[in-house]
TrEMBL record:
Family assignment from sequence similarity: Belongs to the binding-protein-dependent transport system permease family. FecCD subfamily.
Designated name of the protein: Iron complex transport system permease protein
Phylogenetic lineage: Bacteria, Bacillati, Actinomycetota, Actinomycetes, Micrococcales
InterPro entries, sorted: ABC_BtuC-like, ABC_transptr_permease_BtuC
Keyword Ribonucleoprotein: no
Length: 382
C-alpha cells in the first residue's frame, strides 16, 4: 500500500512538467516502514511519449498552415478583394502596371506588422503566465501595456514624440516600470506575490496609469490627436521603417523567451522544487522579464495597446498540446499572429467601407474568453 502511494505521487509530479519523467520526483524518495526507499514510479512508455510528440508536431503543422492561409487572406481581403491566384502572381511575378498587384504590395507591410505584433504579444503573454503562475496573466491585465501607453503619452505630451522610432524607447521604459511596480505592490504582505494579488495589482496600476493618461490628454489637443490614432491598436498605415525599428528588439526578446521553456516548467512546481532541480527562480524571472518588456514595448510602440491576444492564445494551446512550455512558447509564435491577422481581416469587412481596428476586434473576441476563464474558477497557480 505504501509503495502504491509513492508511485501515485510520482505520477502526479510527472504530470506537472510534461516530458520530464526522467527527473527524480519527491515521491520516489519516500521511506518505507522498513526504512528503505521505494523505487521510482514507472516512467511513461516510449509509445506514449511518441504519441504526445506526434500530436504536438501535427498541431505545429496545422498552426503553420493556418498562419500561411490567414496571411494570404490578409493580402487578398479588404475594401477591394483580390483573387488568390492574383495574390500569388503579385508575390512571385510582380507587375507595377497591374492595379491588383499594387494593392497586394500595399497590404504586405500591414500583414508583416500583424505578424510581428501578434508573435510578440502571444509569446510575451505565454511567458507571463508561466512566470507569474497565473492563467489570467496578460500584458494588458498585468498593466504592462498600460505602462507603455502612459510612457508614450508622456513622450508625446512633454517631448513632442511622433513615430514608432520615438515611441519605442518610451514604451520600453514604461513597460519595465509598470512590471516592477505591479510586482512590488503584489509582494506586499505575508503571502508575497501570489497569482491573484498580481492580477489585482495589475488592474489597480493600469487604472491609475489610465487616469494619468487622461489628465495629460485632456489638457493638450495635439497630444490627444496623436494618441487617438495610435491607441486603438490598428495595423493599418504602418511603414517598413517602423517595422525595421522594432525588429531587432523583437528578435532579441523572442530568443530570450524561447530559451526559458524548461525554467517555466520547473516554476510550475513551485520555487522550492525549482531550486531542487537546479534552477534559480529569481534569476530566471528577471531574464524572462527582460524578454517580456522587449516584446511588449515593441508591439505597443508599433501598433498601440492591443489586449487579450496574450491571454487567449496560451489557453487555446494548452487544450491542444498540454502545459509543456517547451512546446507552448514556439507554438504561440504561430497561433498568436494568426489570431491577430484574422481579427484584422474580419475588421476590414464587418463595416464596409469603414474598418474596425484589430485592437478593438481582439478585445471584443477576448472579453468573453476572459470571462469564461474566470468563471471556470482556475485562478489558482498553474
Amino acid at each position: 500500500m505504501q509503495e502504491g502511494t509513492a508511485a501515485e505521487g510520482t505520477s502526479v509530479a510527472g504530470s506537472a512538467t510534461p516530458d520530464t519523467a526522467s527527473q527524480p520526483s519527491a515521491a520516489s524518495a519516500v521511506p518505507t516502514q522498513a526504512g528503505a526507499r521505494t523505487a521510482p514510479g514507472p516512467a511513461p512508455s516510449l509509445a506514449a511519449k511518441g504519441f504526445n510528440t506526434r500530436r504536438r508536431l501535427c498541431w505545429l503543422a496545422v498552426l503553420g498552415a493556418a498562419l500561411l492561409l490567414v496571411a494570404l487572406a490578409s493580402l487578398a481581403i479588404g475594401a477591394r478583394s483580390i483573387a488568390p491566384a492574383t495574390v500569388l502572381d503579385a508575390l512571385f511575378a510582380f507587375d507595377p502596371a497591374n492595379g491588383d498587384h499594387a494593392v497586394v504590395l500595399s497590404r504586405i507591410v500591414r500583414t508583416v506588422a500583424g505578424l510581428v505584433v501578434g508573435l510578440s504579444l502571444g509569446l510575451a503573454g505565454t511567458s507571463m503566465q508561466g512566470v507569474a503562475r497565473n492563467p489570467l496573466a496578460d500584458p494588458g491585465i498585468l498593466g504592462v501595456n498600460a505602462g507603455a501607453s502612459l510612457a508614450v503619452v508622456s513622450g508625446i505630451f512633454f517631448f513632442g514624440a511622433a513615430g514608432v522610432s520615438s515611441y519605442l524607447w518610451f514604451a520600453f521604459a514604461g513597460s519595465a516600470v509598470a512590471a516592477v511596480v505591479v510586482y512590488l505592490v503584489a509582494s506586499l504582505g505575508r503571502s508575497g506575490a501570489t497569482p491573484v494579488k498580481l492580477a489585482l495589482a495589475g488592474a489597480a496600476v493600469a487604472a491609475g496609469m489610465g487616469s494619468l493618461m487622461s489628465a495629460m490628454l485632456v489638457s493638450s489637443q495635439d497630444s490627444l490627436e496623436l494618441f487617438r490614432r495610435w491607441q486603438v491598436g490598428a495595423l493599418a498605415g504602418k511603414s517598413w521603417d517602423s517595422i525595421l525599428a522594432v525588429l531587432p528588439f523583437v528578435a532579441v526578446g523572442v530568443v530570450i523567451l524561447l530559451c526559458t521553456g524548461r525554467l517555466l516548467n520547473t516554476l510550475a512546481l513551485g520555487d522550492d522544487m525549482a531550486r531542487g532541480l537546479g534552477q534559480r527562480p529569481g534569476v530566471g524571472r528577471a531574464v524572462s522579464a527582460v524578454g517580456i518588456v522587449l516584446l511588449c514595448g515593441s508591439a505597443t510602440a508599433l501598433a498601440g495597446p492591443i489586449g487579450f491576444i496574450g491571454l487567449i492564445v496560451p489557453h487555446l494551446l494548452r487544450g491542444l498540446v498540454g502545459p509543456d512550455y517547451r512546446w507552448l512558447l514556439p507554438l504561440s509564435l504561430l497561433a498568436a499572429p494568426a489570431v491577430l491577422l484574422a481579427a484584422d481581416v474580419a475588421g476590414r469587412v464587418i463595416l464596409l467601407p469603414s474598418e474596425v481596428p484589430a485592437g478593438i476586434l481582439a478585445a471584443i473576441i477576448g472579453a468573453p474568453v476572459f470571462i469564461a476563464v474566470v468563471r471556470r474558477g482556475k485562478q489558482a497557480e498553474l
